[in-house]
Amino acid sequence: MQPMRKDSPLTQPGARNFRRDDDRDAVLSAFASMSPYSAARILGLTLAKDAKPRSRVVSVLCPWHSERGPSCDLTVKGGKLLAVCRSCKRGGGVIDIVGAIEGINPKGADYFRVLDRAAEIVGVDVRPRGRFEPRPVTELDVVRAQLRDAHREKEAADGAATAERLSHALVVAELLARIDMLEGVVDWLSRWLIAVERRIGT
To answer: For the segment 141-198, what is each residue's pLDDT rounded down to a tens digit?
Structure first.
């Protein structure tokens, strides 16, 4: 199996390949559909002597470190095959497990190598690697894009309307403050004039 080129668009940060996403989902579903006992046997993991085919959790030799007795628990939880080692505290899903078994870091450019190896182990026919090809745009994608655009336009319009309302509210508040201040001045002038008239009258 040829390693993926490091300059491939699939290895670039932020790149998405919808076809490979489908491949990953198919591989993960295939492993999750079987018992932990069967998954361990297919992966080539050494099972504990007391492991039972119908057990929800089975112990295997940890793929992340060397050990004499099985201390890694393999189970299916939340629709995913998971492994957790009680000794080294490492663990993960199918991709992490296969990466540990094959000695390949499933992060970054080597992710798809591990994915293809997992597909080969479980017998899932994945699409060939190569040029980045996003999946064809469907009518549903167009409708979703239109809805997103409409939602963004509504948010922008609502934001503008809100800003305008706030601006009007500030203007009104300032006018009310000035009116209140003028009323205070008028009241003071009225009292001053009354006092002056009284003095003149005396």
So the answer is: 566 666 666 767 777 777 666 666 666 766 776 777 777 777 777 777 777 787 777 7
| Residues ≥6 apart with Cβ < 8 Å to 5 | 11
Whether the Cβ atoms of residue 97 and residue 122 lie closer than 8 Å to each other:
no
Residues paired with residue 80 on neighbouring β-strands, in sequence order: 77
As a whole number of angstroms, the distance between CA 165 and CA 150 comes to: 22
Quote the CA–CA distance of 18 and 13 in Å, as a whole number.
Answer: 15
Short-list 42, 78, 77, CA closest to 60: 42
User: What is d(CA 32, CA 97) in angstroms, rounded to the nearest whole number?
Assistant: 13
| Beta pairing partners, 73 | 59, 84
SS3 category, 42: helix
| Residues contacting 77, CB < 8 A, separation 6+ | none
Task: Measure Cα distances from 88 to 32, 66, 67 in Å.
Answer: 24, 10, 10
Q: So what's the pLDDT on residue 97?
A: 94
With beta carbons less than 8 A apart as the criterion, state whether 85 and 62 touch: yes
Prediction pTM value: 0.54
